[in-house]
Design a protein that fits this description.
The chain is mainly β. Helix content is 3%, strand content 44%.
Amino acid sequence: QVQMVQSGGGLVQAGGSLTLSCTTSELRWRAYVMGWFRQTPGKEREAVSCISKGGRDTYYDDSVKERFTISRDDTTETLYLQMTNLKVEDTAMYYCAAGEWSGPWPPVQASLRTRFPFWGQGTQVTVSS
């Protein structure tokens, strides 16, 4: 099974910043769309941001626009999520994923595992007030 390894996350005060990273050497990295998703207890996993193959197109949930930036480095095979001006409501477990999703935004929740078959282990982001 493909292992995508995440790093970053942690505890930060509201208004602060964090950067999440995700990498794997087990995929044909450039062949996949990449995304970040988050989940809180009792709720379904939701799409935060996705980036196309090559990085030309990016997509964001309205709640994170202007605050989060997704990027990918195809040379080092690393996916990033830069999070600024964090809010308490950003508190969640964050997951990176790779897949064949081709739109439209946002990815349909019912088909997340189909469109994004490869997932990271998750990293907790906690924002305190």
